[in-house]
Amino acid sequence: MRVNSGTWAIVLLATAVAAGQTEVNRRHTETLLGPFPAEVHDSVVLSPDGRHVAYIESGSGGRVVLDGTPQRDYDRVAALEFSADGSRLAYAAQRDGRWFVVVDDRESPGYVRVGPPQFSADGTKVAHVALLDVDKRTVVVNGKPGRSYDVISAGLIEFSPAGSRLAYGAVREGKCYLVVDSEEFGPFDDLGTRTGYRFTADGTRVACVALVDDALRVVLGDKQGPPHYDVGDLVFSPDGRRMAYTARQEENGPWRVVVNGKEQKPYDSIGDGSLRFSPDGNRIAYSAQQQSRWLAVVDGVEGELHDGVAEMQFSPDSGRFTYVAQDGDQEAVVVDGERQRTFDAIGGGSLVFSPNSRRLGYIARTGRARFVVIDGNRKPRYDMVAYLNFSPDSRHYAHVALSGGETFTVVDDRPAAHRYKSVWNPPGEKLLFDYRDQFRYIAVKEDQIYLVEEKID
Q1: Closest among 74, 75, 81 to 66, alpha carbons compared
Q2: Assign residue 368 a region: left if phi > 0, alpha if psi is -120 to 50, beta otherwise?
């Protein structure tokens, strides 16, 4: 029973603004980014900072348009990728049978094939996998190819959080190696692409899962952990002092969370992707299955049993914890152990704590009505709502609403007077605030696309 909170789809409405609300003319500026015909919507990529838009020009199949400005022509283009700050754009391009990676409108050398480009978090590096003419693969960083291998494992490349280091899996003569900044660790019989390669926040340590002598082991640097039949999630605490993963010892055996080498209580299953540390690194939580029911486990303490548990989250100050509980065909948010009112569904990915950790908001649905819930209070209904977020000072909450064939923002229950055909946001992001009283988004009207910056009065 998950309802999409509208994280980046275009949605149009056909009902009136909620009764009793007064529209307000908040101060806003519109910066034209160029034409935006409907036929290019499927190829659109937004920059993570929410300020830039790129898409593949309709009909050409081989030209990228960045903020309304066409780039150079190719036979084919694909895999558009922005840097985190939005200042750089990269993509794969084909011309005369050769593939290139184009970064800031500059071409790499040509290859037989290339993988999707990937920026480091600081935007200073871009890496991709390339197939060489000799049927070997290499990882290219800022245009410079590294050592060649028979295979690059699943084309998976991982930069450290700060972007200074790079890790990937590679195969040479039937053996697998973890390659970190050109240094090889191994050989191993296989590498677990399910878990990927995990750096600590400071980039000093990296871990992965490797197959050694028919058993899976967590490898941390040059040290191998104990053997397991299967390994699931693998995470570091934000401070890098603790490492946790999920594992089981036999095919039909129980699953356990292992924290710094110490096994926790066994369960029938551990929820995929649920294992997480609090922001301060001192707390740990996950969802677990016990006799066909699910519960949240926080610091080893079990919560109530439910039909399902999802959307687990710590507050920014690490002191509070919330999740979505499903029981039958109803869902409810549980915060600090207390169950709030039930709804038909809670919006996936919509739960958000205020920066000061005192407030909690989310998107919910009852019947056809969608609305936000703030501090346990249901707010006005719309056909759809999305991108709920709190201001940096935690005083205001804002979201996008869709009604009457128009899209608009709502701040503290007050709908804006300026309306659009649709509003877009970077994937996985809430409304993006620049200051305590200013946020931004991408909007479409009359087949033109705009960067809108809005100030709360």
Answers
A1: 81
A2: alpha
Query: How far apart (Å, rounded) are the C-alpha atoms in residues 241 and 280?
Result: 11
CA distance 89 to 74: 16
CA atoms within a 13 Å half-sphere pointing along the CA-CB vector of 30: 13
Burial class (CB in 10 A: 0-12, 13-18, 19+), 223: exposed
Contacts of 279 (CB under 8 A, 6+ apart): 238, 314, 316, 317, 318
Model confidence, pTM: 0.90
- Separation between Cα atoms, residue 207 and residue 201, nearest integer Å: 12
Position 9 scores a pLDDT of: 38
- pLDDT attached to residue 1: 40
CB count in 10 Å sphere of residue 130? 24
Q: Which runs of E-coded beta strand occur in 183-229? A: 183-188, 190-191, 198-199, 206-212, 215-220, 223-224
DSSP code of 308? E
* Integer Cα distance of 204 and 209 in angstroms: 18
Interatomic CA distance for residues 223 and 239, integer angstroms: 20
CA distance 330 to 348: 14
Task: Report the 10 Å Cβ neighbour count for 297.
Answer: 24
- Tell me the CB-side half-sphere exposure of residue 63, using CA atoms within 13 A: 11
Domain limits, the chain: 1-35+350-457
- For residue 195, what is the DSSP state? T
Collapsing DSSP states into helix, strand and coil, what is residue 397?
Answer: strand
Task: Assess contact for 403 and 16: CB atoms under 8 A.
Answer: yes
43: helix, coil or strand?
Answer: helix
Cα 181 to Cα 157, 173, 178, 337, distances in angstroms: 11, 21, 10, 44
pLDDT along the chain (457 residues), means of 10: 38 41 80 90 92 87 90 94 96 96 94 96 96 94 95 89 93 94 93 88 94 94 92 95 96 95 96 96 97 96 96 98 97 96 96 98 96 96 96 97 94 95 91 94 94 93
3-class state of residue 317 by DSSP: coil
Q: Read off the tokens for 227.
A: 């053997």
Copy the structure tokens of residue 265.
Answer: 């209580």
Backbone angles phi, psi at 202, to 5 degrees: -85, 0
Give the SS3 label for residue 377. Answer: strand
Which SS3 state, helix, strand or coil, does residue 425 take? Answer: coil
* pLDDT given for residue 230 in this prediction: 95
CA atoms within 13 A on the CB side of 252: 0
Give, in order, the Cα–Cα distances in Å from 177 to each of 170, 214, 232. 5, 16, 20
Name every residue whose Cβ is closer than 8 Å to that of residue 155 and which is 6 or more positions away in sequence: 115, 116, 129
